[in-house]
Amino acid sequence: MDSKRRPIHGGISRNPNSTSKPAMAFHFLRALSHIRLTTRRGSSLARRTLRIRRAAYASMACSAGTRRAWSRALLRKLRSPAPRRGASVLPRRAARTTSSPDTDLRQALALRRLVPGGAAMEHCELLEETADYIRCLNAQVWLMQAVVHGLGDLSN
Amino acid sequence: MEKERFFCVSSQSPEAVMPVQINCGAATGQLPQPVLNLGWDQLMHHGVRFDSALGSLVPSSPSSNQLAGSDSVGLRELVGRLGSSGDMSLTSRYQNANSSHYSTLLSSPSKLGMDHQQQSKRSLPMAGQFAAPFSTNPGFVERAARFSCFGARSYDGLRGQFGLPEAGRLSRVSSSQSLKATGGIPVGVPDNGKETASTPEETEFSNGQEASSASDMMPASSAENNARKRKAATKGKGKAAPLSFSTISPPKETEEEIYEAKRCKTSETSEADKFTRTKPNTEQSSDDGQKQGKDNNAKPPEPPKDYIHVRARRGQATDSHSLAERVRREKISERMKLLQDLVPGCNKITGKALMLDEIINYVQSLQRQVEFLSTKLATLNPQLDCNMDSLLRKDMHQEGTLPQQVYPPLDLTSTAFSYAQQDMQTSLNPLDSLRQPPGVQLDSLEGFADANSQLGNFWEDDLQYVVQMGFGKSQGTAFSSQSLCAE
Question: In the record, what terms sit under GO molecular function (chain B) (predicted)?
């Protein structure tokens, strides 16, 4: 799915912080359609769920493009299907930058686990990426709710 | 534990400090500790030189913790005053948002360094009001107020109100400063050159330090305060703080409290006088002495440039590092503010640790929501084929004010709609571009096409549907008709 990876929205982003909802909607709905087309008879709900979730994250990453570290990391993760369990190695520099007490470090660790690509970020960068990630997640959740709602309405 | 060591350095009473912390935690639901942790973090940056002093410190027995929680109200005032004294925005910011955490830390050292006399004057009154019944030992009061009351009281007050970060920071800053001073300071240097009697001052200071052990921050802040003051005033003058550290003798806890009380009480009056008359390098020393009571609650409109100026003036050996650290902390606080806006319900949360907790919870909840919605979609997926088009248009339309961004690769209808709100004429362009496959979307569009091949005639219906849905902007309506014609 190379088309998905390419930053489709044509370069005019007024605000780098704004989430591109049309792009996200396009990606996501296209992926949904694709899933629906390729879903086999015997595919389980869990498998479909996984595919849809993966499509959701892919659409998020595509809408964010490559200008965000988390989207890049997410795209990388989605492209390489090899699940590297426990491969998130916190770089030493990340630990160095924050000589924080244990509580803070625990929280920083937890945040790094949550945000894709967070393991290799400095604390400052981590916070910034988290902000963008939260924005994108919000948009994605909103989009999915709209789709569900729309499907529910249309099916009724 | 760094904190413990730090407290030892400042107040020589790690046990006192730790119990205080524990009390704080118990009292405030663990809030102070994370806040302290934050402060420690920053403070440790300041006090990298503490290590040398740490070894020499002898942990003293825990001081009276009851002092900590005695005057919460008074402490609040103290906090306010500290904020005003250290930095006008400190208190308010701290009380308003957690971001003040960083700003206070940044500003407090500067303020402390700028005019220690002012600080001491302010701290003294603050301490004084807390420890009214305490007797007064003029020299001790002065010193104690400067060192311990300022830090300790502020800490106590803050602790009561989650003011820990601010107080802690202040105290930490002062303590770090004092520790730095300790590094190369001879034992008998009078503090700030104010008090002639070095030994009594030192003892007073040590006593003050010990007395302040009740509040863990006190000695740190006071020491640091002193250190900063000394540095600001005279580069080599006030070495009492470090001196006291090295010479602090453990068995003065009982006296500490008394001294502390004395400090607090006398700080208000005597200290103010002393400070007002003594310090030349503080421009507002005289004013501060008189206006302490008034200004403490108010936020003195000290321009930020003074703060910056003070920082530069200190001329610390690791100034570049500390400046870089300050910049970094400012950046982090900025980001935390951003995050605070993003995460709902975090306006009242102050403190980096709590904020991080909230952020983590929010991200987890969002991810769980995505998971749940994808499950829901999976159950609804069989119905997707007929509804994708309308759904797509519905989504595009429901996005309300679509961003002005041009989005060529969208499929026919969605692209059209996205353009519709911005520019009718460009609506045709995506259609054209779609006809000439941009290479990006053609394959993807095929998915739609396959699904919708039998629904080709459905498009117009969908478009009309969307229009009826309230696409109802004038240009949108016109555009939809245009797109209909185009198709």
Answer: DNA-binding transcription factor activity; protein dimerization activity
Asked if B380 and A151 touch (Cβ cutoff 8 Å), the reply is yes
Kindly list the distances between the CA atom of residue B367 and the CA atoms of A83, A94, B338, B361, B372, in Å, as whole numbers in the listed order.
18, 24, 20, 10, 9
Task: Compute CA distances A79 → A54, A57, B27, whole Å.
Answer: 11, 12, 50
Which range is most confident: A149-153, B290-294, B296-300? A149-153
Q: Are B465 and B390 in contact (CB under 8 A)?
A: yes
- The answer to whether B391 contacts A29, with C-beta atoms less than 8 Å apart, is yes
B469 — contact with chain A (CB < 8 Å)? no
Distance from CA of B9 to the nearest CA of A (A): 18
Give chain A positions within 8 Å (CB) of B3: 101
Range from A22-31, B5-14, B153-162, B426-435 that averages highest in pLDDT:
A22-31
For chain A, what are the domain ranges?
A: 20-81+101-155
**pLDDT over 70 (residue B71):** no
- Point out the residue among B339, B369, B406 whose CB comes nearest to the CB of A141: B369
Q: What pLDDT shows up at residue B365?
A: 92
Which ipTM did the prediction report? 0.81
- Which of B108, B85, B103, B102 is closest to B170 using CA atoms? B108
Q: Does the global pTM surpass 0.95?
A: no
By residue count, chain B amounts to 487
CB B177 within 8 A of CB B150: no
Nearest alpha carbon to residue B267 among B222, B334, B216: B222
Minimal-distance CA residue of chain B relative to A10: B407
B41 vs A14: CB contact, 8 Å cut-off?
no
Strand ranges, E, within A62-126: none
Can you read off the two tokens belonging to residue B28? 């405030």
CA distances from B295 to B83, B125, B192 (A): 10, 11, 23
Which A residues in the span 95-114 are in contact with B, Cβ-Cβ below 8 Å?
Answer: 98-104, 107-108, 110-111, 114
Q: Are A140 and A23 in contact (CB under 8 A)?
A: no
Of A21, A71, A99, A8, nearest to B441 by C-alpha is: A8
In this complex, the residue of B370, B395, B404 whose CB is nearest that of residue A146 is: B395
